Amino acid sequence: MLRTRSFRVMVISFLLVVVAAELTARALAPRLPEPQRWDTPFSHAKAEEAAAAGPVDIVVLGSSIANASIDVPLLVESIPWAEDGYNVALPSTTPRQWELWMRDVVLPDLCPQLLLIAIGVRDVNDANPGVDNRLRAYTSSSGRRALYDELSVAEQVDRWASGLSTFVALRERLREPASVYRYLRDGSAPGWPSIELSATGRYLGFDDRAYADNPERDDGLRRGALSDFTVGPGEFGALARIIEQTRAQGTAVALVDMPAMRTPLTAILDDAERDVADYEDRVASLVADTGVPLLQYPDLVDDPSLFADLYHMQLEGTLTISARLGEDLAHLVPEAPAARCAPRPETGPA
Amino acid sequence: MAFNSVQYAILLSVVFILYRVLSRRGQNLLLLVASYIFYGFWDWRFLSLLLISTVVDYVVGLRMAGAEGARRRSLLFVSMATNLGILGFFKYFNFFADSAARVLETVGLEASFATLNIVLPVGISFYTFQTMSYTIDVYRRELEPTRDLLAFAVFVAFFPQLVAGPIERARRLLPQFEADRRPADLATIGSGLYLIFIGLFKKVVLADAVAPVVEESFANPGQAGWLQLLVGLYAFSLQIYGDFSGYSSIARGSARLLGIDLMVNFSQPYLSRNITQFWRTWHISLSTWLRDYLYIPLGGNRGRRWATQRNLMITMLLGGLWHGAAWVFVVWGFLHGLYLAAHRRFRARHEGGESDVPGWRDVPAIVATFHLVALSWIFFRSSSFTAALDYVVGLVTFRPGPVPVDALLLVGPLVAISFLLDFAQRHGRRHEAIQYWPAVARGFVYAGCFLLIVLFSGQPVVPFIYFQF
């Protein structure tokens, strides 16, 4: 009798503490960033948005260059048949990752009528040393694996529990109480995602930056994205496959060679003349092989008033190129292509 | 298959249910199959090593029964050679080949010993020591050899303690497999689940939560500031304790659900007032093994003072080497040998027992002992002797660096929780002390532990540190 009563009191005390913790988590949840299930805050935010928003007319694909520099609402404004669009570009990625991203998220969830692929020299280096690690992080992220039912039993239990309890769902944040405090006080905390995206997925962080020389940044590019610059079948092969697969579902595709501060940018390359020639040859071959229309804006190249750094545009550059792109796309694709929505493949493309 | 995995929860649940309806022989068969599945999850090929140890020691034990003198000694030699041969080859071959080549290089001889790409079988140091205790005890006539091969095979491979101990003695564990067992009653199941719960808490909350801080501090000790190094050192002291004692607790809890009583492996070691007490409360199954099968046969403390010091040093050096085939472990063992020898030389006549509840007057001694132990952890955790020296230099020269606020905010409360938990156990004079607290307090503490387990779970799984030994 005594033991039963004692057990009951213990259970009630236990539940009181657990319920109090859950209520606290629910109260904090709207004011904290949600836990990240994809490899980066950008892919997380965009995948969640794509799943929630459903089909749109236009999508813009690329790296941080397109992510910052192409404003989708301006494109939509210029194209008579288009009503909406989304910028699906992912910073620090290359066409090899875009290919997966298209099949995983963009084509099945957003079913675009028109795909605009934005490329630059920085995006197509087959010798870029960071690409494999980033691809691994992307393919192994729980958000991506969940699309293909590849979660382990523990992860599935976790997902189920996260649906039931905000404390469980939010624990990645709650286990850093100092950061919780800072975030509630200042709206940011070191190491926590703090990305400024527009409603249509454009990164706003470069809008108010002015162009300035930055040798440290140039050195980072020399050792990173542009290291041992080699344009070959890896990245351009992925671009060709993206174009082919997207067209297969009836979507129109256009390619834009993004303007940049080309003179200082190419100075970073090992052999600027040869490397730029290689890049241009590969772009020309891609256009010839696939018949994809290519948009170029040589008059915007090397104008520091348009750029935040070597290739990201600031607000004026973004408005300029987006308006020009809108006009050109309206001519290129005068009518809606009537694309079909492709189901997501059953297994995750490797 | 790790204890903190869904697979283990499923295995234990299935075994627990089936176990209750089987006869003794059926229970042993079930335990053997479950143990081989458990071990085979890592690498089924190494089951052959378990089988070799089992068969050799079983046969040696039986043969010893009718043997005397030289024949008895040669049978013991067969068992030792088999077990130490397996251990030596898989664990130490490359270490000794590399070390020999370096020694020859220092005297101007160029030597190139072939090193092999050898995978270390998980738990090899644990089960070889456990089976050796059987043949040694039979040899010493302290134990009758068993005729029950099934019970002996379960004794060698019993899954809750197979890969990281406690290193049980045959005379304690084997009779439990030979005897009939009644299904565990509710109270026993309750205490088994409690031990598993506390073990998970120690592993997930105390050990895994601080793992990133440890990683950061030990990754580049030549660059880190002294505060980062100090927090990293406290974090590792907590991590290795939480990790290993958590494992032992889950092992004991799992075994208890099956009606098997495993020995206590940790008894609040960081509350020790001196280094001798520390070794009576830290990894008790290994320290008592080394005492009974190495230190005492070497002469123990029966000879002159210098002989006792020598025996202590040899025991601790080999104890260090047992942990891993690297010189940093030897240095770790050397430091502990030094501590023990010094303590033996200067210790007070009366120091109290290791289970005494510490009072305020004991705090300086506890703090000093903890820091001596922590200092030795630097060598245990570092990737090389040079890295360990960098760590020590950074600490003692107060190398400037940023204040690691987040690490302090994480490690500080967890160290406090660990000490409070230990103090509660010591004060209650039992490992399940919290089970005897008032119901409201129990509910609050269980809920707090549960919430912390939930909070720190869902991160990349950190393997148990002692699996590598």
Question: What does this entry look like structurally?
Answer:
- Chain A is α/β, with parallel strands linked by helices.
- Chain A contains 16 helices and 5 strands.
- Chain A has helices at residues 2-28, 41-53, 64-69, 72-78, 95-110, 131-140, 142-147, 153-164, 166-169, 171-174, 177-186, 215-223, 233-248, 262-266, 272-290, 315-332, and strands at 58-61, 85-87, 114-119, 252-257, 294-296.
- In chain A, strands 2-1-3-4-5 form a 5-stranded parallel β-sheet, sandwiched between helices.
- Chain A is globular and about 85 Å long.
- Chain A starts with a helix and ends in an 18-residue tail after the last helix.
- Chain B is mainly α and 469 residues long.
- Chain B is built from 18 helices and no strands.
- Chain B has helices at residues 6-19, 24-43, 47-65, 69-106, 124-139, 149-157, 170-178, 186-207, 211-219, 226-257, 275-281, 284-295, 305-323, 327-346, 363-381, 385-396, 405-428, 439-456.
- The longest helix of chain B is centred in the N-terminal third of the chain and has 38 residues, at 69-106.
- Chain B is globular.
- The mean pLDDT of chain B is 88.
- The chains are: A alpha/beta (350), B mainly alpha (469).
Mean pLDDT of chain B: 88
Mean pLDDT of chain A: 89
Could you give a short account of the major beta sheet of chain A?
5 strands, parallel
Helix proportion range of chain A = 40-55%
Q: What is the count of DSSP helices of chain A, taking H or I runs of 4+ residues?
A: 16
How many strand elements of chain A?
Answer: 5
Radius of gyration of chain B, in angstroms, nearest whole number: 23 Å
Estimate the strand proportion of chain B. under 5%
- H/E order of the elements of chain B? HHHHHHHHHHHHHHHHHH
